[in-house]
Amino acid sequence: MTVIAHISDLHVSTADFNEDIFMQAATEINRLQPDMIILTGDLTDHGYYNEFEQAKRYLEVFEAPLFAVPGNHDSRNLGYQSFEELIGEKSWKLTLGDEFTVIGLDSSSPDENKGHVGTPQHMWLEHQLDECVINEQFSIVALHHHVISIPQTGRERNVLSDAGDVLKTLTTHEVDLILSGHKHVPNIWRINDTLAVNAGSLCSSKLRGKNKNSYNVYNITDSEIEIFLNIVGGEKFLFGKFPRNTL
Q1: Using CB atoms within 10 A as the burial measure, which of 36, 97, 147, 204 is most buried?
Q2: Burial track 55-64 (b if 16+ CB lie within 10 A, e otherwise)
Q3: What is the mean pLDDT of each run of 10 residues along the chain (247 residues)?
Q4: What's the pLDDT score for residue 213?
């Protein structure tokens, strides 16, 4: 079984970041001993260089390999440059053994809230997913902005501007999991045989309604995907259970 922890929207800053909740979440995730941690953006609140320095120190608490993509807040105030210097590449591909491919996309634009993948990155994505189909690999695509609107988030202004094209590519290539953040609301959409899963905010005070700080955990076996929603310092419950795609 492969275990993946999905965290998002830390918003490291002097105002909206809760260090105690972060440390509690890190302790819980380390106990799970996941194979990897995927962080879908908004590590910082303003994209300031010192916020990235703080975020980097916090992320070093995690014991599992962690892979992050930037969010809209991370690309403010030249944060897109700081991300690459202190965190890593903004888009990337990694493999876990011979069966798993995880692709990270940069959906952010400097000093804008809206998301955009863009033609060059989209072409690169299609090439990588073509290889996944040929090699019959389990595929995960992670990006900050969601490709389809999230319920209970009010008027929608921040779906990818090229969401239709990106969503078509993801579903026609039968991507197993699309992981996103941004709205701080956990959610699962099933589109054909593709699961689009949104994570809540791990440790910021920017929470909608009665939502609490949370993270997702994916238990992936040869036959199924179990998705657990974990409330930081609280309950854990099965968010969804789905059969694996067969190519």
Answers
A1: 147
A2: bbebbeebee
A3: 97 95 98 97 97 98 97 95 96 89 95 90 96 93 94 77 93 96 96 95 94 97 95 95 78
A4: 98
152 neighbors 186 (Cβ within 8 angstroms): no
CATH of span 2-243:
3.60.21.10
CA pair distance 145, 155, nearest whole angstrom? 15
pLDDT (0 to 100) of residue 246: 58
Instruction: Report the predicted TM-score, pTM, of the whole model to 2 decimal places.
Output: 0.95
Shortest CA distance to 171 belongs to which of 149, 188, 151, 196?
196
**How many CB atoms are located within 10 Å of the residue 141 CB?**
27
Q: How many whole angstroms separate alpha carbon 90 and alpha carbon 83?
A: 7
**Among candidates 47, 72, 227, 229, which has minimal Cα distance to 159?**
72
Domain ranges of the chain: 2-243
Beta bridge partners of 178: 141, 196
